[in-house]
Amino acid sequence: LDYQHVQVPFEITLWIMLASLAKIGFHLYNKLPSVVPESCLLIFVGLIMGGIIYGLNDKSPPVMDSDIFFLYLLPPIVLDAGYFMPSRPFFENIGTILLYAVVGTIWNVFGIVFSLYGICQVKAFHLQDVSLLHNLLFGSLIAAVDPVAVLAVFEEIHVNEKLHILVFGESLLNDAVTVVLYKLFRSFCEMPTIQSVDVLAGVGKFFVVGLGGVLVGLIFGMTAAFTTRFTKDIRVIEPLFVFLYSYLSYLTAEMFHLSGIVAIIACAMGMKRYVEANISLKSHTTVKYFMKMWSSVSDTLIFIFLGVSTIGENHEWNWPYICFTVIFCLVWRALGVLVLTFFVNRFHVNTITSKDQFIIAYGGLRGAICFSLVFLLPDFHRKKLFIAATTVVILFTVFVQGMTIRPLVDLLAVKRKRESAPTVGEQIHIRFLDHLLAGIEDISGHWGQYYWKDKLEYFNSKYLQKILLREYDQPKSSIVLLYEKLERKHAIELAEAGQLGHGPSHPSLLHNDRTVVTDRKLEHTLNPDVLENIQEILTRNLYRIRRMGPAYNRHTLPGETEPVEHAKEILILRHKSL
Amino acid sequence: LDYQHVQVPFEITLWIMLASLAKIGFHLYNKLPSVVPESCLLIFVGLIMGGIIYGLNDKSPPVMDSDIFFLYLLPPIVLDAGYFMPSRPFFENIGTILLYAVVGTIWNVFGIVFSLYGICQVKAFHLQDVSLLHNLLFGSLIAAVDPVAVLAVFEEIHVNEKLHILVFGESLLNDAVTVVLYKLFRSFCEMPTIQSVDVLAGVGKFFVVGLGGVLVGLIFGMTAAFTTRFTKDIRVIEPLFVFLYSYLSYLTAEMFHLSGIVAIIACAMGMKRYVEANISLKSHTTVKYFMKMWSSVSDTLIFIFLGVSTIGENHEWNWPYICFTVIFCLVWRALGVLVLTFFVNRFHVNTITSKDQFIIAYGGLRGAICFSLVFLLPDFHRKKLFIAATTVVILFTVFVQGMTIRPLVDLLAVKRKRESAPTVGEQIHIRFLDHLLAGIEDISGHWGQYYWKDKLEYFNSKYLQKILLREYDQPKSSIVLLYEKLERKHAIELAEAGQLGHGPSHPSLLHNDRTVVTDRKLEHTLNPDVLENIQEILTRNLYRIRRMGPAYNRHTLPGETEPVEHAKEILILRHKSL
Questions:
Q1: Which of A123, A422, A520, B337 is 20 to 30 A removed from B386 (C-alpha atoms)?
Q2: Of residues A423 and A229, which shows the higher confidence score?
């Protein structure tokens, strides 16, 4: 028997196996997952495992290594989150999300820290030796909402899209704030004196860390898209690039002390559109499936490890401090949400209801990120107190809040996610309104959301697509292919009969009027995959029509619309001939 | 900048990226891969990389770690090989393959070793200090054909299926022999005296290592199949089990000093059939795609590392020894193939032609396995000589033989792989002959290949399938689903008209006559995916008919065929009603 030779991969494989089997186990009993969130069950399995290890070895089970967590377990989950992020609601609410993520987190940190510092001054609690700086360090890690925990719970309760994106977006983007505050206070710990310059530099760092992360992510995302242009002859390694480049973006950001989470999200959101157009359908299935699988395993492992690491002798149970931490976390978050939403509602038409506010405040779950960070704290004599407080806060939020949020959502009748996908009619309508609003913003000279979206789309179609997409942009839907084939046949017939004249052949014009014709055919298609494809094509091509149509753009000359007129004429000709 | 924090994953990712980009690079120039095998190009890239590292650091670049190779790079390739192994030609030629793999490898080892030992006695070569035992160690690692190198070259030249499986099967199964001989001689190195008992124990080990590997593999394979029975509600982690269990089988086998390669092949071949039936179509696409991707990346990395590791100062260039090693490798392999094939051809109807023999002998490429093993040799003063000899043999076989084998295959007009898949008619014919032969063997009391296959199939359908498959065995093909739906509708109509009587409903009988009806529909289907599905269903169900049909089995009573008669009657009734 030669165990140490294979020990590392063997134990990793066994842990993953345990995680997967635990997942299967829960789903065998249909009732269990509908009452208790999976994350709770997994922590419970972890607790049992930890108890067994503790009982057998009579020493604390190994805690989750922070390096393993940040380098190997977290990236797949964030990649999955970024890749499948619904971009429309995300960008529509980006202002609110950033407000919650940046201002809200800072509010929480300082609220919790100064209240806790106040508690530390009470002599009866024996906490006078916990300095303000240590409290600041603790506050910076305990204040941030955890994306893994939020995702695990919110994926199961199906609240409406806006509410989901607000909580989830906040949990992702507050990483930049957490990183900055945590590192700032850590460096303060090591400094003899703190000057006001250092504090100012800290504020400047927010922007560097956040925007730097976005930049790194976008660079890697664009490179990934560019690389997949050349994989036509070697389809089998296409999915690899999606994973490699996003992981590299994360590692590079971490290397430069930027926000890795922000980087990987920017990378995934940036590349998605181009990569999807470049790679084959099977590669894309593999990418999607593997991403889901990987994040699901990571997620499972994280919760199991959370449970395992809880058992042991790493804790100092000073209950006043711990209880007040839980209370302050809840209170300050609730206050923060109320105050910030008040301002948001004043400037937005689409207000956040008080029910939504309650769920946002209540959904502020803490998870494995703070757990990993608390073990990374510099050693000092009350570190075990912080570990105990963090553990209790995580268990409280995941178990109590996680288990009661679903009944509360039912009780409050919070608006749910709509079950069906939007119909094509709705999609066209939404898009029509987008264009209308972009036009209105353009005419009125207001540089709003639609104006920028319009500009970005223009930049995309004019430059980015040409560089990043393979030249032959073939539609994937079989119905469109069939239609093109029929059209080509028809065009040849027309040409043979001499009716077409010297105009361009129909198929080359189809890129413009495909959408119109597809729409007519829609009543006959019910297959959701095909429908999705059609919607994707609509998404792309409706825009093209607007770009080529008679513009309400101040910078377009009438002469530029000529090809569209030409296309229209031929379209009319074609309709007549039919 | 915090590089060492992310160093490990960053460098791994960069190496994989380099490998993938190199692969894309070759395929951009279509002419290159058609002349030079990819493995040569990759070694070349590795040589350049190694040269750069050597030039910059002025010391030898790091050699490929044997642990990394055996634990992380080799398993994906072997898994891919085992999973996509064409089982029919493999089992048809299993005797010949085993003969080549076991007897042939032993022949090669001892042939090469004693010839080299003879060379060592020549005073002019200054090799008298290389003992017989050291030669034996060297021989045991240099004699074995390498599956990775063989796969890389033979996948590109498309020889006929039998020839391919003979060379490839040998390269996979000789692992057991290599492991035994290598470990035996290593332990001899450390023993003060060698007794004849030790040699006998070594011979016994062959069976333990080989059959033990098969056993470990089958146990894990069956467990994997059993696990996928329960993944219906959690499709997303299905692909994971295929990878986890096969990797565990490899690691477990390695842990017990059994043949990991044999174990993973047995695991993959054992589970494939059941896993495919249990998991969803998308999961299966992911499994297939990811396996190909992973093995492709591993393969690329191995060849690049081979190139990198070649550069440096690890070599002792004693040219007589090196040249004679190359010559003896070629000569003894050629002799071995000739002698063994002589015996094979005497006992088989389907003979191996002299052209095939030449390609088998010439296709005996060496690769990364011997390279990793030579670095694992115990330290002694002429280890560098062995490293040099191994490097030259690998480069010679991969470059010279690998690059000339394609022109030689063309020149000799070796029978190629047929381009098209066998038609359904052919498949039915082959299967019919199988049953006929099984019947003949059964009647004549000859326990041949078909008899055992029949028994295995019986055991499978009677016990294994019941345990390992989910109970509702739904066909995946949409055409069959549609057909069942139409049938069900028809049955309801018949029932309403009172024509059906008290017979069982049609759909429940469809399992028996589905094949007949599907065949009639075949002319209308051209989609290869659908065709493949149909062929799969045929494969399963034609057997079922034979099992349920009036048997040429001595142990079946006439009464047992009653349900078939019943089904037939209803089929006739149905045909009339149509």
A1: B337
A2: A229
Question: How far is C-alpha B195 from the chain's CA centre?
Answer: 37
Q: Kindly list the structural domains of chain B, giving each domain's residue range(s) and its CATH number in brackets, ordered by start.
A: 3-412 (1.20.1530.20), 427-480 (no CATH)
Candidate from A13, A21, A234 with C-beta closest to B248: A13
Per-residue pLDDT at B513:
41
Q: Considering only residues 481 to 510 of chain A, which have any Cβ-Cβ distance to chain B shorter than 8 Å? A: none
The predicted model scores a pTM of 0.78
- CA gap A35, A399 in Å, rounded: 12
How remote is the C-alpha of B280 from its chain's centroid?
24
What are the CA-CA distances from residue A430 to residues A423, B435, B442 (Å)? 11, 63, 72
Chain B CB within 8 Å of residue A72 CB: yes
Measured CA to CA, the distance from residue B111 to residue B120 in angstroms comes to 14
Q: Are B423 and B533 in contact (CB under 8 A)?
A: no
Q: How far is A286 from chain B (nearest CA, A)?
A: 5
CA distance B127 to B121: 7
Q: What percent of chain A has pLDDT over 70?
A: 79
Phi-psi region of B417 (alpha: psi -120 to 50; beta: other; left: phi over 0): beta
Residues A509-546 have pLDDT tens digits of 344 444 444 444 444 444 666 666 666 665 555 444 43
B residues 283-342 closer than 8 Å to A (CB): 283, 285-286, 289-290, 292-293, 296-297
**Contacts of residue B24 in chain A, CB cutoff 8 Å?**
227, 230-231, 234, 237
Mean pLDDT value across residues B511-516: 42
Task: Answer yes or no: are the C-beta atoms of B517 and B490 closer than 8 Å.
Answer: no
Angle at B364 between CA B91 and CA A235, to 5 degrees: 75
Chain A residues whose CB is inside 8 A of the B3 CB are: 255
Q: In this structure, are residues B518 and B534 in contact, taking their beta carbons and an 8 Å threshold?
A: yes
Does residue B526 belong to the interface with chain A, where contact is any CB pair within 8 Å?
A: no
State the Rg of chain A over Cα. 27
Task: Count CA atoms closer than 13 A to A41's CA, side-chain side.
Answer: 21
A532 has a chain B CB within 8 A of its CB: no
Q: Which of A156-165, A377-386, A491-500, B379-388 has the lowest mean pLDDT?
A: A491-500
Helix (H), strand (E), coil (C) string for A1-57: CCHHHHHHHHHHHHHHHHHHHHHHHHHHCCHHHHHCCHHHHHHHHHHHHHHHHHHHH
- Asked if residue A482 has pLDDT above 50, the reply is yes
Nearest to B13 among A5, A251, A283 (CB): A251
A279 closest CA partner among A227, A244, A329, A334 = A227
Give the residue among A541, A538, A514, A549 at the shortest CA–CA distance from A439.
A549
* Secondary structure (DSSP) of A54-111: HHHHSSPPPPPPHHHIIIIIHHHHHHHHHHT--HHHHHHTHHHHHIIIIIIHHHHHHH
How far, in whole angstroms, is CA A298 from its chain's centroid? 16
Q: Do A239 and B1 touch (CB under 8 A)?
A: no
Instruction: Say if the Cβ atoms of A297 and B255 lie within 8 Å.
Output: no
Strand partners, B159: B416
Can you list the alpha helix ranges (DSSP code H) found in A396-505?
402-412, 424-444, 449-459, 465-468, 478-496
Is residue A228 packed enough to be buried (19+ CB in 10 Å), middle (13-18) or exposed (0-12)?
A: buried
B32 in contact with A at a CB cutoff of 8 Å?
Answer: no
| Alpha-carbon gap, residue A312 to A558, rounded angstroms | 76
Question: Quick check: A233 and B27 CB within 8 A?
Answer: yes
Structure tokens at B292: 């190909």
